[in-house]
């Protein structure tokens, strides 16, 4: 059975949770030095001072931590993936890990995209949020969404995570009604995220990234095949990876499709590489694979030194 | 205040709670490792154990703040003893 590396989407991540890893792990320190050179500022210092969850430095820190943990897993767990995937933000990480982008370019692209997103959502779609919720199977969700439409509201799926577990884009003004209605059918609303993500409405953002950002970056064929989190397809060329990163702005994540492809590829073990509270923990993943959470906590645990031969 | 099954189920969902640390009504659940997907698992376990269904206001964030707030909601969902 093969091993897959899964690079998670980014959740709220604060410096106190990962700071010890960033300053104490030699791989992370080395990669952070390279990131600092690319960006011209200290990622650690700026991340420590960040006042929002998705600050540019927080995004770069998340990226670098994931890539450092992947290298750590290869060294200390002796794991090499036969296939990789990345969910949402993890699309950038997997591009960097597989060599579709150089480390320096992955860092620079992450920072550039963070700035573009900030600028775009400061003036565009200011009333849209991404609401996540769980415990709402389709037969209960469909009537709720039908009522939402009947109220004259727009919605669109941003992310399918698992059976009964989704993210939906909708107007902020409809959120109170929506979450109350979800609770009435036993659903558990989680977070209303701003900026929103993955919507066909964000064509302006898509065009800016396509025309002004991506032409500055050269993609290569990935060294390891990548499973698309949007379609479940296997990606093996530079252009496919570039399209994956670009289309992530306007296409929903279909995580169960990516998981199904991993299953079809005879993957038996999944290493979820990075801080994750979601993508590696949903039922469709934990039911299908042996899951190892490769996070800063694991990497900072004291490890037994190998005993020299002959003793 | 609570019952042994509740405490046993809850402890199983609080990965950062030392085994020898007592649960009190003020014990904060998030601080002891209960996150979003942990809440989902916990709900399933409590619903199975007590034969109740968490809906409506029982599913707000306040329910899962402390041991006391969760027990209070759960106790309110249980059929009254006769």
Automatic annotation (TrEMBL), chain B:
Family annotation (Gene3D superfamilies): ACP-like
InterPro entries: ACP-like_sf (IPR036736), PP-bd_ACP (IPR009081)
PROSITE patterns, sorted: CARRIER
Span of domain Carrier: 1-78
Domain of life: Bacteria
Protein name, as recorded: Acyl carrier protein
């Amino acid at each position: 059975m093969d091993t897959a590396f899964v690079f998670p989407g980014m959740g709220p991540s604060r410096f106190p949770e990962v700071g010890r890893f960033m300053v104490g792990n030699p791989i992370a320190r080395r990669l952070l030095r390279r990131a600092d050179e690319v960006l011209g500022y200290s990622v650690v210092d700026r991340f420590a001072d960040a006042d929002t969850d998705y600050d540019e430095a927080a995004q770069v820190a998340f990226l670098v931590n994931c890539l450092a943990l992947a290298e750590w897993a290869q060294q200390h767990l002796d794991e090499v993936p036969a296939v990789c995937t990345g969910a949402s933000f993890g699309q950038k990480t997997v591009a960097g890990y597989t060599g579709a982008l150089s480390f320096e370019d992955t860092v620079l692209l992450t920072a550039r995209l963070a700035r573009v997103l900030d600028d775009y959502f400061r003036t565009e779609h200011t009333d849209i949020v991404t609401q996540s919720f769980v415990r709402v199977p389709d037969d209960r969700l469909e009537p709720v969404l039908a009522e939402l439409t009947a109220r004259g509201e727009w919605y669109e799926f941003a992310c399918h995570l698992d059976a009964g577990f989704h993210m939906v884009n909708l107007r902020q003004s409809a959120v109170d009604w929506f979450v109350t209605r979800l609770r009435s059918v036993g659903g558990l609303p989680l977070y209303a995220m701003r900026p929103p993500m993955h919507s066909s409405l964000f064509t302006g953002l898509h065009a800016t990234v396509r025309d002004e950002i991506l032409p500055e970056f050269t993609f290569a064929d990935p060294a390891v095949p990548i499973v698309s989190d949007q379609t479940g397809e296997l990606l093996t060329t530079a252009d496919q990876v570039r399209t994956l990163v670009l289309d992530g702005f306007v296409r929903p994540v279909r995580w169960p499709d990516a998981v199904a492809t991993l299953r079809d590829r005879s993957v038996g073990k999944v290493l979820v590489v990075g801080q994750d509270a979601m993508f590696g923990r949903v039922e469709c993943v934990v039911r299908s694979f042996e899951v190892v959470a490769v996070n800063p906590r694991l990497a900072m645990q004291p490890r037994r030194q190998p005993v020299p031969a002959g003793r | 205040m609570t019952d042994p099954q509740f405490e046993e189920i809850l402890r199983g969902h609080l990965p950062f709670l030392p085994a020898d640390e007592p649960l009190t009504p003020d014990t904060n659940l998030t601080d002891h490792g209960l996150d979003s997907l942990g809440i989902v698992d916990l709900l399933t376990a409590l619903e199975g154990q007590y034969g109740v269904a968490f809906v409506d206001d029982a599913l707000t964030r306040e329910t899962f703040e402390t041991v006391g707030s969760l027990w209070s909601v759960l106790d309110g969902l249980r059929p009254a003893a006769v």
